[in-house]
Write a structure and sequence with these properties.
heterodimer, A: 114 residues, mainly beta, five-stranded antiparallel sheet, 0% helix, globular, B: mainly beta, seven-stranded mixed sheet, 53% strand
Chain lengths: 114, 117
């Protein structure tokens, strides 16, 4: 029930295209859903995050769409650039005794061709 | 803001030795720090959660006597890998959550590449 399932495992997009990565969860106690970007040999960097009280959040070229009833959320990268090529992780956390503990998805390797 | 550093960035040691990795929050106070390990092409696996001034909470399957965690101040947590073996080789990453964070936000360090020969 703690799992977060992420798809696809890898994604190839042309420059200027839209990259879409999806995540699904089971634990209804999750109330915080961040996306992280990780370059090889580096730590993850927080990209954007959403809470269940909104269905969409946009920051620049990055948008999270959240569907509470379906227990799914997705990351959209508009106008994808070669510099966006990295591994993307979705994650989720809950309050209570697990406060702040992140459960990560399996990761998506994004390649943006010039 | 929200910068987390790790030291060293890379370490190579012989089997049987113990190595300490430091995690520092540089511009904020971190009530909670988390330690993860990541194998090549895999996701991050939480090892333990440490709160300042109290004992760390380890995830199931993580040997607390092998991975010693200390969170002595609001800006520093350390992970000591004791009696290292080649299977301990991994990418170790810490993260920190600030005192003022509304909840959930974690900021990650750059990671430590740990290799046991």
């Amino acid at each position: 029930q703690q799992q977060v399932k992420q798809s696809p495992q890898s994604l190839i997009v042309q420059k200027g295209g839209i990259s879409i990565i999806n995540c699904a969860y089971e634990n209804t106690a999750f109330d915080y859903f961040p996306w992280y970007q990780q370059f090889p040999g580096k730590g993850p960097a927080l990209l954007i995050a959403i809470r269940p009280d909104v269905s969409e959040k946009k920051e620049g070229r990055f948008t999270i769409s959240f569907n509470k009833s379906a227990k799914q959320f997705s990351l959209h990268i508009m106008d994808s650039q070669p510099g966006d090529s990295a591994t993307y992780f979705c994650a989720a956390s809950a309050g209570g005794t697990s406060y702040g503990k992140l459960t990560f998805g399996q990761g998506t390797i994004l390649t943006v061709h010039p | 803001g929200a910068v987390v550093s790790q030291h060293p960035s890379r370490v190579i040691c012989k089997s049987g030795t113990s190595v300490k990795i430091e995690c520092r929050s540089l511009d904020f106070q971190a009530t909670t720090m988390f330690w993860y390990r990541q194998f090549p092409k895999q996701s991050l696996m939480l090892m333990a959660t440490s709160n300042e001034g109290s004992k760390a909470t380890y995830e199931q399957g993580v040997e607390k006597d092998k991975f010693l965690i200390n969170h002595a101040s609001l800006t520093l947590s350390t992970l000591t890998v004791t009696s290292a073996h080649p299977e301990d080789s991994s990418f170790y990453i810490c993260s920190a959550r600030g005192v003022r964070d509304r909840g959930g936000e974690q900021y990650f360090g750059p990671g430590t590449r740990f290799t046991v020969t």
